[in-house]
């Protein structure tokens, strides 16, 4: 099989062809490892889990952003493969791109649980109630593995480098939709911005290429709804109140559990 790869060494860019033995059951990542082991040890690409969980091996395969470890040769149904680094990212070397801006945008939406009383996160005496129906409103967006493939497919990211992008906005909605979170006001300024939710034109390309079925395009539309409700009606998604906490704190005089002995028999 012919494999054409767009190479970059930090100064110049070129296309390089390889002839590689391939089976229909091989993944694109298998082919890349074969090239590096038997043909060209200078080829650079990222990999880690090899099972679609870490998101490290994102690249453009025959013009479509995807994970190399999840793309099988037999599924491509082509005589050759064309591999490129993810679009809309600065290329470091060959198929390796710089994720600094991607991570910074992700961090800017504060993708973690926020409570008005921070101590509740560290020393909560009870469990916050989340019903199955409430869980369904955000669990789909919790599957994001931060592979960055969605930004490579997004036409808005291509023309506006300041746009937060589908990954960050999808994760913002994941936490805003969570009834345990109280951080909507802390995120609103970065979301309700000309480079925030309103820059999305709903092309849907991000959802089409997402390897985990997260559907960030849908999350962004829900996020627009929440922002409008807050700005026009001064309403925000209700969070779990203390009265809805479900496991009562143990009484002060309750006996303490016995200490767990970590000593391993035969060890020191």
Describe this structure in words.
The structure is a single chain. With 268 residues, the protein is of the alpha+beta class. It contains eleven helices and seven strands. The strands form two sheets. It has a five-stranded mixed β-sheet with strand order 2-1-5-3-4. Strands 6-7 form a two-stranded antiparallel ribbon. The chain starts with a strand and ends in a 35-residue tail after the last helix.
Which characteristics define this entry?
single chain, two-stranded antiparallel ribbon, alpha+beta, 32% helix, 7 strands, 268 residues
Describe, in short, the structure shown.
This protein is of the alpha+beta class. It is 32% helix and 12% strand.
Write the layout of secondary structure elements.
Elements: E1 2-8, E2 13-19, H1 28-38, E3 58-61, E4 64-67, H2 73-76, E5 80-84, E6 91-93, E7 96-97, H3 100-108, H4 119-123, H5 132-136, H6 149-153, H7 155-159, H8 166-176, H9 184-191, H10 205-209, H11 216-233
Parallel strand pairs: 1-5
Antiparallel strand pairs: 1-2, 3-4, 3-5, 6-7
Helix pairs in contact: 3-8, 8-11
| Sheet with the most strands: spatial strand order | 2-1-5-3-4
Major sheet details? 5 strands, mixed
Distance between the termini: 56 Å
Alpha-beta classification = alpha+beta
Percent of residues in beta strands:
5-15%
From the alpha-carbon coordinates, what is the Rg to the nearest angstrom? 23 Å
Broad shape: globular
| Count of separate DSSP helical elements | 11
Number of strands: 7
Q: List the helices and strands in order.
A: EEHEEHEEEHHHHHHHHH
What share of residues is helical? 25-40%
Low-confidence stretches: 242-248
On the 0-100 scale, what is the average pLDDT? 90
